[in-house]
Amino acid sequence: MDGGNHSMVSEFVFLGLSNSWEIQLLLFLFSSVFYAASLMGNLLIVLTVVSDARLQSPMYFLLANLSIIDLIFCSTTAPKMIYDLFRERKTISFEGCVVQIFFIHAIGGTEMVLLIAMAFDRYVAICKPLHYLTIMSSWRCILFLLTSWFIGLIHSMTQLIFVIDLPFCGPNELDSFFCDLPRFIKLACLETYKLEFMVTANSGLISVASFLILIISYIFILATVQKKSSGGIYKALSTLSAHITVVVLFFGPLIFFYIWPFPTSQLDKFLAIFDAVITPFLNPVIYTFRNKDMKVAIRKLCTQFMNYSKIS
Predict the structure, then answer these.
(1) How far apart, in whole angstroms, are the C-alpha atoms of residue 65 and residue 145?
(2) Does position 39 have pLDDT exceeding 60, yes or no?
(3) b or e along 15-34 (b: 16 or more beta carbons within 10 Å of the residue's beta carbon)?
(4) Nearest to 74 by CA among 294, 289, 282
(5) d(Cα 99, Cα 89) in Å, to the nearest integer?
(6) Which residues of 131-145 are buried (b: 16+ CB within 10 A; e: fewer)?
(7) Which residues pair with 13 in a beta bridge?
(8) What residues contact 36, with CB distance under 8 A and at least 6 apart?
């Protein structure tokens, strides 16, 4: 597609979330609080895992990397959304839009694969506890992490390679608060039905496939535990509950975006806000409150910080 050289659109205009001043103020307060909480919560988990020797295990290594991904993910769209809420003209450059799309899909794809790696970690911990440290060795954890980023980057580049050179000659209005790839494609000055289908199918396929792999892994874990001990299934459910909750919160909006046949703009925007600022906030909350070791380590870190502040 060589029409990109003749594109007359240098920027896109976001229609935003609402024209009501009261709703904009409410969204500003809501988004700002949850974005700040997401940053602090995920940063706290990373610092806690790095600083506490008792948390130097594969599970916490993967958890810390999930928090790093959430830090990047919530910073991809939330700051721009918050900044634009009270701007009369909400714009983003063509290049900025492409960069935002790239990071959204790269980080999203990376997190999907990392969640699968975390599910495998829980399988080994529950079903093969005696071989846990042997199977979940340091090199395997690093391999999981590198594979997650590799697949995420490949997924994102695959999406962009077909749209980067699309010609845009107007209109340039996106009915959203961020550069949503399907809406971005619809603004191109040519027939994009097949391209829209391909992009949506690509993202939908990886989302549904990852979600099904995770659900099957949970069923397999519970079935394995049930065979060994009927009473152990409750302990396994308790161990998996935090991870299952995070998976549902992450994949729920994504699957709705790509599978629901009757898209509605307002509902899409609500789910996008949920995905952008609430899910990254809930992840550290869920893992912290469901994990005794994390709570102890965080209290210890906070105590050390307060003692250091007093001395200083």
Answers:
(1) 8
(2) yes
(3) ebbeeeeeebeebeeebeeb
(4) 282
(5) 20
(6) ebeeebeeebbeebb
(7) 91, 173
(8) none
Query: 10 Å Cβ neighbour count for 51?
Result: 12
Residue 205: other Cβ atoms inside 10 A: 11
pTM: 0.87
pLDDT for 225: 80
CB 26 within 8 A of CB 272: no
Q: Which two tokens stand for residue 17?
A: 């979330």
Q: What CA–CA distance (Å, rounded) separates 306 from 299?
A: 11
90: helix, strand or coil: strand
289-305, pLDDT tens digit by residue?
777 888 888 888 878 77
Pairing between strand 11-14 and 90-93?
antiparallel
Spatial separation of the C-alpha atoms in residues 178 and 58, rounded to whole Å: 35
Contacts of 225 (CB under 8 A, 6+ apart): 126, 127, 232, 233, 235, 236
Cβ atoms 152, 108 nearer than 8 A: yes
With CA atoms as reference, report the closest residue to 284 among 109, 81, 68: 68
* Sheet of 173-174, strands arranged across: 90-93, 11-14, 173-174
Cβ atoms within 10 A of the Cβ of 248, count? 12
Structure tokens at 225: 């535990």
